[in-house]
C-alpha cells in the first residue's frame, strides 16, 4: 500500500454462459416479408437537401423500412395527410424553406398520431426546445448526419413503444 497513492479495486463478475444469453426474449413486429425484423415501419423523411435525403432514405430502405421522401414541409404535410395513421415515424430537418420542422410537426401531428419524431439540425437543440414544449416523442440528431447513428436512432425510437 503506497501512502497517498489512492486505492485499487478489482471486481470479479461471473461470465454469462451462452445459453443464458440466448434466453433473452425477442419481441418481434410482424413484417410482410421475411426481412430483418429490426427494420419494419414506415418513415416520412423530410429533408430539402436531395443528396442527404437520398443517401439516408436508401440506407433506411436497405434495412427494411418503407421510406416516404419529402423535399419540404409543404410536401411532407400533404404526404402525412395522404398516409394518415400509417406513418410510424417522422424524420425532419428543422430549417427548411417555407414550413420549417417545428411548424410542420404542429400541422402534421393530427395525421401522425403518437408516432415519434426525430429532428435533424445543425443548430443547437436548445434553439428549438421552446417551439416544441407541448410536443411529446421528439428527439434530436445533430448535423452533419452520421448515417450509422441515424439507423441506430430510428431502430431505438421505433422499438421504444
Overview in brief:
With 161 residues, the protein is of the alpha/beta class. The protein is built from six helices and five strands. It has a single domain, classed as Response regulator (Rossmann fold, 3-Layer(aba) Sandwich).
Helical percent range? 25-40%
Task: Please report the distance between the alpha carbons of the first and last residues.
Answer: 51 Å
Mean pLDDT across all amino acids: 82
- Percentage of β-strand residues: 15-25%
Count, helices = 6
Number of strands: 5
What is the ordering of alpha helices and beta strands?
A: HEHEHEHEHEH
**CATH class category label:** Alpha Beta
Radius of gyration: 20 Å
Instruction: Provide the structure class.
Output: alpha/beta
Model regions low in confidence, pLDDT < 50 over at least 5 residues = 29-38
Instruction: Give the full name of the CATH homologous superfamily.
Output: Response regulator
Task: Based on the coordinates given, report the CATH architecture.
Answer: 3-Layer(aba) Sandwich
What's the shape? Answer: globular
Strand order, largest beta sheet: 2-1-3-4-5
Biggest sheet character = 5 strands, parallel
How many domain regions? Answer: 1
Explain what this protein looks like in three dimensions.
This protein is of the alpha/beta class and 161 residues long. It has one domain: Rossmann fold, CATH 3.40.50. It has six helices and five strands; from the N terminus they run αβαβαβαβαβα. It has helices spanning 18-22, 50-62, 73-82, 101-112, 126-129, 147-160, and strands at residues 42-46, 66-70, 89-93, 117-121, 138-142. The protein has a five-stranded parallel β-sheet with strand order 2-1-3-4-5, with helices on both faces. Helix 2 (50-62) links the parallel strand 1 and strand 2 (66-70). Mean pLDDT is 82; it is low at 29-38.
Amino acid at each position: 500500500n503506497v501512502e497517498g497513492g489512492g486505492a485499487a479495486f478489482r471486481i470479479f463478475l461471473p461470465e454469462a454462459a451462452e445459453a443464458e444469453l440466448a434466453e433473452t426474449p425477442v419481441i418481434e413486429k410482424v413484417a410482410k416479408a421475411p426481412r430483418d425484423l429490426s427494420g419494419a415501419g414506415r418513415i416520412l423523411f423530410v429533408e430539402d437537401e436531395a443528396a442527404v435525403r437520398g443517401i439516408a432514405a436508401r440506407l433506411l430502405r436497405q434495412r427494411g423500412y418503407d421510406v416516404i421522401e419529402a423535399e419540404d414541409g409543404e410536401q411532407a404535410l400533404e404526404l402525412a395527410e395522404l398516409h394518415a395513421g400509417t406513418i410510424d415515424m417522422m424524420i425532419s430537418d428543422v430549417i427548411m424553406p417555407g414550413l420549417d420542422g417545428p411548424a410542420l410537426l404542429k400541422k402534421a401531428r393530427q395525421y401522425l398520431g403518437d408516432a415519434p419524431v426525430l429532428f435533424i439540425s445543425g443548430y443547437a437543440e436548445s434553439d428549438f426546445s421552446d417551439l416544441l414544449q407541448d410536443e411529446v416523442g421528439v428527439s434530436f440528431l445533430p448535423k452533419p448526419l452520421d448515417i450509422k447513428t441515424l439507423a441506430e436512432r430510428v431502430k431505438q425510437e421505433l422499438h421504444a413503444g
